[in-house]
Amino acid sequence: MKRILIFLFPLFCSIGVPVFSQDGKWFRWEMVGALSVQEDQVLKDSVEVSNFIRGKYRELYGLGYLAPKEAVIKTSKDSLWLRVDTGEKFEWVSLRQGNVDPVLMVKAGVDMRRFSGKPFDYRQVSRLFESLLKESENRGYPFAAIRLDSLERKGNGFSGALDLDSGPRITFDSLKITGDTKTKPEFISRFLQIKPGQDFSQKKIDEGIQQIRGLPYLKWAGEPELSFQNEEATLYLPITDRKINSIDGIIGFLPNENEGGKMLITGQFDIALYNVAGTGRNYELHWQRFNQLSQTLKISGFEPLLLGSNIDASLSFSLLKEDTTFLNRDFRLNFGYRFNSDGYLSFFTRRQAGDLLAVFGLEESTQLPDAGDFRFNNYGLNYRHIWLDDVFFPRRGALAQIEFAIGNKNILQNTGLPPGLYEGIELKTLQYYMEGKFEKHFYLSPRWGIFTRIAGGMVENENILLNDLFRIGGLQSIRGFNENFFFANKYLYLNFEPRFYFDTYSYFMIFADMGRLENTVQDFGIDSTFSAGMGFSLETGNGIFNFIYGLGKSNSQEFALNLSKIHFGYTGRF
Prior knowledge:
4-stranded mixed beta sheet, 5 helices, disordered N terminus, mainly beta, 30 strands
């Protein structure tokens, strides 16, 4: 058997391409032989001519014409006529599997039928090698090498076999954290699914680096490094803690107008603790009460990698007391799975309960009030995909999230209302809702950027209640309005916010928010909102100060200075 070595080298490299004058740009490419093509081009300069010729030769090689011959028919200062004889077409007779493991071939997605009776394309061979080597380095053999063996020419055909040298089998030894962080190596090891004794996998390392970028409480202090010794690999991670834990609050004491001689406690308190004890656990508490009759409370906890599995668990409880109208409670249990470095899928079960608070004077009502007593048990899915460069303070990239849930809602008969009001109403019905958002950060320059967001949602039920509806308005949705200003069973809004960065995490901004809201419960119809304003975000040594001034217009609010809203606050971080 005769082994041969093929050198594919474009002949035009040895032919001088004329340096065109500023006005001369005519070029003709002519092929003869098996392919007959003539193509005239008007090109900018000799660089474009050279690139054009290289592209044509790559096409010929891809079709199996490995030995084209060229001749210059005409050349001058401003023109070039090149004729190329394609020559013979070479094909694969066969390419055998050789010593490559059949399982490796399947995992790499290699189809050897592409190398039987097909044109000889060296690019396909390159892709074949790349696929096998990539799969090898994810199966414990990062130093594998591959070549063609027993390569033989038979007329215009080639046959050969694959020869894979796997090299030494490498396993993970340990994972070492070299930065200043309280995060435990055991947690990072479980989070990245990199454990001592496992086969080395470059894919796990690459995805792990991306996953760490998705943890808001960690940041990179340098580039990760790999060390190979005694057929073992050690991964060094230079990560440090980021000041993301926050605590802030305002406490006020006012005279209680309903109970003489007593004080009314008002205010706001927020605390968020991340990566507690270096284990990835997160806890949050948010409480707000600005008058005697209304307040909100939300408590949540997050446990990563539950019981050593790859499943995360979270639990939350929220309460909303809307003056003397209704009281809502929301209990949610969530199980999530991170199936790649960017995507996160979660399944949840949720119980929502609402109760009327004040029914005095409704004993003689002829119709049910807008709000009501209900219990809604639902199950749903949530999917989030992140392409952000920094999940805590992004400058470029995008985020998409969608949630859907469905379940049975039971309307409870309130004993303070006439029983006849419930006649003819189906008390147990199917209810579902859907919400989604997409955020995009445009990086224009180190000083300039644009933040955009579009969000929408809908809830459907034949007996929908006021306290079933979404609450929209405020700093996190449509600015220029009070928090939770709108009730909506359908909503869609757009945020547009150009930013000027005068420091790494500090910027001035202007904004415009547009929304379309629908409230069929109160027969408000369609409300098209618009708001605009300006503000800034200032990073200090131990926190962030935000100030936003906005004006909003809706069916129930005029676009007027005396109705402008100021959103401001300082969040201390540690």
